[in-house]
Design brief:
With about 400 residues, the chain is an alpha+beta fold. The chain is built from 10 helices and 18 strands. The strands form 2 sheets. A 12-stranded mixed beta sheet has the order 7-8-9-10-11-1-2-3-4-5-6-12. The termini are far apart.
Length: about 400
């Protein structure tokens, strides 16, 4: 059956049911910069997933959306492989230096176990994760390396994070603070197919084509495939494919391919999954002998240099002033965030900045237009234009789209 874009024969009640399903699907959203565009309503294409292997009953795209929204998997354990290829330049020794500089975490705690910095490793390369869950207050995520393991364990009112490579632990106690800390830190970078799928569904609006796209087997389980594609030109997103477990509705695999073609930008999927109750000992943790333990409340009040939150308000206010002009140009997958840094653009060789200017020039492309001139910094998904007068335009759009937006804003 050929897909078509709308069905005017739907009754008012049916339309209300569809909107209710969309709202329910969007409520599990986890923030992620990769597909962080605003959601409205999902423009569904009622194609059917009745072909391919395995042979499953036909379902519509809307039914798959509702199946994901209704999924209520409370217990599972499994292994997830996640690969991210943004096409970032190889910075060699500088990359290691930057990693060391940020190892102390967002709050300056000085702990290599701080989730806010450690989980950012998922933003590049290929990684293997072990995940486990038992209800709302027991979760474990382990990032496996060749010779080390990093884990975040949430058990009741406590959150522990442990880095075996450095023998350091990070601890937050108290139901309210632990929950907030986990959300603020470990969910900054979505690590499972469900987290990625939820955000993609949030991003889908009436500028999006959503179709059921056959079936597949993932981690030995039968699954339907949901295909999300931008209708607009100018987006760097080519397509998003989500494999949905036929029985539980849990997203098992998430793949984002760029409009430019080639390998996936993000490919995250279960290689093993078990929906039985994990052993209670899975969520037990005590820091090993000799481990350096950083308490979350200590890092917030003291920080690496004894500053912490006490020093933040002034800096935070200044940062807020710099981004007061933030607004969004366009809609859907063509959305572009625009803000004014309040200062001058980046140093360049042309401006007489010497080696620093040459280095920055090598990372970006020089562009010009009615807006003046500036530099575009590109990945395979997100691009940003920084003009010489301090304006910034960024989004999952092409370089040409950024220049056109900057010209239009003049």
């Amino acid at each position: 059956m050929a897909p078509y874009e709308s069905d005017d024969s739907r009754t008012g009640d049916e339309a209300d049911d569809m909107r209710a399903g969309r709202r329910k699907a969007a409520r599990y959203v986890v923030p992620v910069a990769v597909v962080g565009v605003a959601a409205a309503t999902i423009g569904l294409v009622p194609a059917f997933a009745g072909s391919g292997d395995p042979d499953l009953p036909e379902v519509s795209a809307q039914q798959l959306i509702e199946k994901i929204a209704a999924s209520d998997v409370q217990q599972l354990s499994g292994t997830v492989k996640i690969s991210t290829d943004l096409g970032l330049p190889d910075l060699g020794g500088l990359e290691s230096s930057l990693g060391g500089a940020t190892a102390g975490g967002r709050d300056g705690s000085g702990s290599s176990a701080d989730p806010s910095s450690k989980l950012m490793e998922l933003a590049s390369g290929t990684h293997t994760l072990r995940v486990a869950a038992d209800g709302e207050d027991k979760h474990k995520l382990s990032l496996l390396d060749k010779a080390a393991e990093y884990s975040v364990i949430h058990n009741g009112d406590e959150v522990w994070a442990y880095d075996s490579a450095s023998n350091e632990a990070y601890h937050v106690k108290g139901a309210a603070s632990a929950g907030k800390d986990t959300k603020d830190r470990s969910e900054d970078v979505p690590a499972t197919p469900k987290e990625l799928a939820d955000e993609a569904l949030k991003a889908a609006d009436d500028t999006t084509s959503v179709t059921a796209d056959g079936t597949a087997q993932v981690a030995g389980r039968d699954a339907y495939k949901l295909l999300i594609e931008p209708k607009q030109s100018g987006s760097t997103v080519g397509a998003i494919s989500i494999a949905v477990d036929a029985k539980t509705g849990l997203p098992l695999k998430f793949t984002l391919t760029p409009a430019s073609g080639g390998a996936a930008v993000i490919d995250a999927g279960f290689t093993e999954v078990d929906f039985s109750k994990p052993a209670a000992s899975t969520f037990d943790f005590s820091p090993p002998k000799g481990a350096k333990v950083t308490e979350g409340d200590e890092s917030a009040s003291e920080g690496r240099a004894g500053k912490g939150d006490k020093a933040r308000p002034e800096g935070g206010e200044e940062l807020g002033k710099e981004f007061e002009g933030l607004n969004v140009i366009g809609e859907g997958w063509g959305s572009i965030a625009r803000f004014d840094t309040g200062g001058e653009g980046l140093p360049s060789e042309a401006s007489g900045a010497g080696d620093a200017g040459r280095f920055l020039d090598s990372l970006g492309d020089q562009v010009s237009g009615k807006f003046g001139s500036g530099t575009v910094f590109s990945t395979r998904l997100v691009n940003a234009l920084i003009t010489d007068d301090g304006k910034v335009y960024a989004g999952a759009v092409t370089k040409d789209a950024l220049v056109k937006a900057a010209d239009a804003a003049k």
